[in-house]
Write a structure and sequence with these properties.
GO terms for molecular function: S-adenosylmethionine-dependent methyltransferase activity. Keywords: Membrane, Methyltransferase, Transferase, Transmembrane, Transmembrane helix. This is Class I SAM-dependent methyltransferase. There is one protein chain. The protein is an alpha/beta fold. It has 2 domains: 45 residues; 167 residues, Vaccinia Virus protein VP39 (Rossmann fold), CATH 3.40.50.150. The protein is built from 6 helices and 7 strands, in the order ααβαβαββαβαββ. Strands 3-2-1-4-5-7-6 form a 7-stranded mixed beta sheet. α2 runs parallel beside α3. The radius of gyration is 19 Å and the shape is globular. It starts with 13 loop residues before the first helix and ends with a strand.
Length: 233
């Protein structure tokens, strides 16, 4: 593999981003053709295109910068065993692995279409391109039924994955599984829509969700992301 290759993490929910952009273009086309309602259509189109730009910033740059900051805040020693739930193409998994020269980073996913070209081969190729292939592994697994023993990891992370589970019971099961595989004193860091992290904190009985700011908005503040940080007692 070329030493000049850079990791390619794709786009989150590309169909949604495409729909936002298409709605913006359609509204602007309508504004150009209509006499009545032209201003409203133009404003609507501009709003959709602004949301598209915000979305693309988050998925292509913003979330990476924020996770770099949050992983720094976690104060890793470099020898931890870390598990990333719903790892996708490895954005958080690989950022964490770079901080674990003596540790190990494990990603699990069901490789659905929530992210473009989502498959284990793409994740492993990104790990190799980032120079951390020796400390990264991936598994196909349901995050609500993890194939790991109790107390296997020092850190569990998850970025915009748990909310994709349709059943509330299964979402809470995924949280319980995350705590089960954590060692005492281990850290849980979950980034998800703010409305969901509030429910997670209530289920776990600990942690206060913290907004991650405009850099993690998927098009609008209503689709902003919060981080739930908890420590296993």
């Amino acid at each position: 593999m070329s030493k000049n290759r850079k990791p390619d993490y794709g786009v989150d929910a590309p169909e949604f981003a495409a729909a936002l952009g298409a709605a913006g273009v359609a509204s602007l086309v309508a504004a150009a053709r209509w006499r009545r309602g032209r201003v409203a259509a133009a404003l609507t189109g501009a709003a959709f295109l602004a949301s598209t730009a915000c979305y693309l910033h988050t998925t292509l740059r913003g979330k990476f910068l924020i996770w770099e900051r949050e992983l720094d805040r976690a104060g890793l020693n470099g020898d931890e065993d870390l598990l990333d739930l719903g790892c996708g193409r490895g954005a958080v998994l690989i950022a964490a692995a770079k901080r674990l020269p003596k540790g190990h980073a494990v990603g699990v996913d069901l490789w659905t279409r929530d992210q473009s070209d989502n498959r284990p081969e793409a994740t492993l190729a990104n790990a190799e391109a980032a120079g951390v292939a020796d400390r990264v592994e991936v598994h196909t697994a349901d995050i609500a039924a993890l194939p790991f023993p109790d107390a296997s990891f020092d850190v569990v992370t998850s970025a915009m994955a748990i909310h994709n589970i349709s059943s509330a019971d299964q979402r809470y099961r995924a949280l319980d599984e995350a705590l089960r595989v954590l060692r005492p004193g281990g850290q849980l860091l979950i980034a998800d829509p703010w409305i969901m992290t509030r429910k997670y904190a209530g289920h776990l009985g600990q942690g206060t969700p913290r907004s991650l700011g405009p850099g993690y908005w998927y098009g609008t503040p209503l689709l902003g992301t919060s981080l739930l940080h908890a420590v296993k007692s």
